[in-house]
Every structure is written in structure tokens, then in C-alpha cells.
Amino acid sequence: MTAHQRRKASQRRRGDRVAYLFLTPWFIGMAVFTLGPILASLYLSFTDYSLLQAPEWTGLDNYQRMLDDPRLHQALLVTVKYVLVSVPLQLALALGLALLLNRGVRGLAIYRSVYYLPSLLAGSVSIAILWRQIFGSDGLINQLLEKVGIEGVSWVAHPDYALGTLVVLNAWTFGSPMVIFLAGLRQIPSVYYEAASVDGAGPVSQFFRITLPLLSPIIFFNLVLQTIGAFQSFTQAFVISGGTGGPADSTLLYTLYLYQRGFGSFDMGYASAMAWTLLVLIAALTGIHFFFGKRWVFYGD
Q1: In this structure, how many other beta carbons lie within 10 angstroms of the beta carbon of residue 202?
Q2: Amino acid 163: pLDDT
Q3: CATH architecture for segment(s) 63-296
Q4: Euclidean distance between the first and the last CA atom of the chain, given in angstroms as a whole number
């Protein structure tokens, strides 16, 4: 190695040391605030821990208790219903608006910002409180129904409709997937549509034979992200139900029940087991998405 090469190698190592020095706070934060709590919760899931006493190792007892917990089964059922309805509805609204904005609407940047705003505010307590007022017995929805002669109900207090209000709230936060859909639509070459028009294909045929296949990677990406996010929904159900999951456990999402067991009953060991079960469930569903995605996602190769 020549003197010039040794000097360059020394400069490169010095630059690496400086880079790692600046990254050190992030590594420390990652270990203390992320990796450490994750490993601690894994250990606690095998213990009887009430926050007031030292953890006592119980093995798989918490996971066995989950099999015989009817409220856990109810929470899982409610969460699955919530995900199966809200995610497709949200993606359909996002794609529909993205197609509309892609047609060359004036002031696109303003519309894009306005539609994206609900996604930024979705997890906030203020929006959940506002939603509870809108769907309350004297809320905006019932006031509009009263003008057309329809007697409304307290939507958030009725077991048959309470979960629907959460679904509508989640679907209303379509801004993030809409922006991603819009970016994907801008990447589809217009020559495909021009050729299809020459061959006599109409808008519907172009949508199903050109737009959807070429947009399938974006659809898949949004589907996976929004599914994971829906399983983790908590604030909306907590605020609208007052932290109870009512009425009649109709809004008892999995994360809300986890919170009740961990911070309401101080059963942290059981709550940790629930958290790891949710992690495994989300990972399994994501794996299923990737497995079946090979059959309908088109990457152009």
C-alpha cells in the first residue's frame, strides 16, 4: 500500500469514527427506550407482575389464561371486524380521491394538504372528542337527520352503531394513503392510456386493465401499513367509549383491553403477554399479505 493509499484509508477511518460518534446518542436511545423495554416486556409476559411487587415467574400461565378469557375473545372479534371494514373503506376512499385529483384539478397542492390533514389529526384526543360530539344524541348527525324527518339515536351509545363510528373515523383519515396513491398514479406512463383509447377501451376498462395492475404495488404497500395501523388503534376507542370499551364491549378494541388489564387491573404480566400475542398476530397477517401478494401484485418484471 502506497503512502497516498494509507493516508486515504486513515481519513476514511477517521470519518467513520466521527459518524459513529454523532450516531451514539441514537444508539443509546434505541437501546434504552426501544430495545430494552421490548426485551423487558417479553420477560414480563412470563411473570405475574402487578407493578406493586416484584415479578414472579409463572411460565406460560399468562398465555394459557388468554385462551379462557371471554373479554379477550370479544376484543379480538371487535378488532377483526374493525380492521376488515375500515381498512378497505379507507383505501377505496383514498384511491377514489387520488383518481379525481389526478385529472388535473386546479389548486392540487391545496387539496392535497387539506385531505392529508385528517391523517395528521387522527390519533389526537381532540378529534376523538369532536367525533363523540358529532355522533352523540344531540350531535350534528342527528340534527341533520331531524331536518329530513328522521329521528336519530345516540350513535356512540348504541351497541349496534358504536363500532361503526370508529370505522367512519378511521376511513376519514384517508389522507396518507391518498397522497401515496396520487404519487403512484403520476408514475403511470400516459402512453398506455393513449394506446388503450386507440384500441377502443373505455375508462372502466382502462381502470381495471391498466391503472389497477400498475398501481398494485402501491395498493399492497398501503394495505399492509393501514392494516398494521388499524390493529394498533387505541385513542379513538378510548375517548369515544370513555375508556370502557362500551356500550356492551362493542368498541372494546384489543389495544383498549390491553390497556385496561395493564393500567386498570395492574396485571402487567398478562398485558405484556397480550402485547406479544398482538405482535405475532400482526406479523402473521403481514406474512399472509406477502404470500398472497405474489399472485396479484404486478412489479413490471
Answers
A1: 9
A2: 93
A3: Orthogonal Bundle (1.10)
A4: 44
Question: Three-state SS for 130?
Answer: helix
Q: Distance between CA atoms of 148 and 159, rounded to whole angstroms?
A: 24
Instruction: Delimit the domains of the chain by residue range.
Output: 3-44, 63-296
User: CA 181, 171, 83: angle at the middle one, nearest 5?
Assistant: 100
State how far the Cα of 42 lies from the Cα of 57, in Å rounded to an integer: 12
Q: What tens digit of pLDDT does each residue of 89-148 get?
A: 999 999 998 888 887 666 666 766 676 666 666 666 677 777 777 887 778 888 888 888
Closest CA to 284 of 224, 239, 244, 240: 224
| Secondary structure of residue 48 in the 3-state scheme | strand
Which residues lie across from 47 on neighbouring strands?
57
- Radius of gyration over alpha carbons of the chain, in Å? 25
Output the CA torsion sign for 143, 148, 153, 155.
negative
Residues paired with 57 in a beta bridge: 47
| pTM for this entry | 0.87
Looking up cell 388503534 gives 233
Nearest to residue 169, comparing CAs of 222, 137, 132, 117?
Answer: 132
Task: Tell me which residue has cell 421490548.
Answer: 38
